[in-house]
């Protein structure tokens, strides 16, 4: 992105070289999600820290504006495994803790994250609730004299099996939903907290899992913010979280576009005269247009975030557009690659499954589209200023 700061452009280039040289060659092994993959990822993360490429948008890093970070995120996102290796997976947690943690919580939870010494997870979804309706959450913490007692189940939690602590959304009251939920910071070695099982997505392990809380003791000092602030904190997480995800998805979409064009120009592509075929040209146009449009929407949302302006409509538009751009890009790349694109000879099959999850995770398409329609109608009602 040409309007990024010189510092961001330089960092983006160094990230690109690292991803190309150290991550892309190992994607097949990293996709196994086994012990060997974990050892490999840990070694690559150490290399990233040594190269000064870890946590590029953490609080206190040289990149302070989200609109500048987009250039870096596009390069981090070129591999579905790079965000974990480069520390990007923890960016949202570091921002939330930096803004809402007490001094004690900063020492216990934030500083280890900034040093790359711990792994966070975010426990919200539940087996017996509706993810898009917080009022249906069943997990509950009762106050017992001098501490909270936490009980419930959470599932489809990223990094659940290897996390050092979980930020848990739970009921702590019986009043209006805006006052009944809280965020608790719970170390995963707490007595009564158990990892139940991994949960594959589309038949592939991607680090999702289920946790069970059985009378877990949570101290008063482990509440993030204040009791009853859960909804407000959730909304703050969602906005930035969707933008960070969308930025990485567009990096992955750009990689698919690059691979598509490389196949068209390759000796095999020339033999098939792919560049002369109208349907191929149409795919190239469509993918390029979708990525460019999503980038514009993402930048608009990021600039409002940097200025502290309301951006809920822009965030949801950017998330949906980035998801569509990635899905369209990988589908077209696979179509041009043919059977090779479906096999382990290409990373596209893994990217394809990853792309499909983007329409569900961080807010389903259907829920976001419904919300956007409602918000746009409210904003364009008689007497309102159009968005």
Automatic annotation (TrEMBL):
Entry's Gene Ontology molecular function annotations: acyl-CoA dehydrogenase activity; flavin adenine dinucleotide binding
Pfam families: Acyl-CoA_dh_1 (PF00441), Acyl-CoA_dh_M (PF02770), Acyl-CoA_dh_N (PF02771)
Coiled coil segments of this chain: none
Cofactors that this protein relies on: FAD
GO cellular component, one term: cytoplasm
Gene Ontology biological process terms in this record: fatty acid beta-oxidation using acyl-CoA dehydrogenase
Keywords: FAD, Flavoprotein, Oxidoreductase
Lineage top rank: taxon: Bacteria
Entries under PANTHER family matching the protein: ACYL-COA DEHYDROGENASE FAMILY MEMBER 11, MEDIUM-CHAIN SPECIFIC ACYL-COA DEHYDROGENASE, MITOCHONDRIAL-RELATED
Subunit: Homodimer.
Record-stated family: Belongs to the acyl-CoA dehydrogenase family.
UniProt protein name: Acyl-CoA dehydrogenase family protein
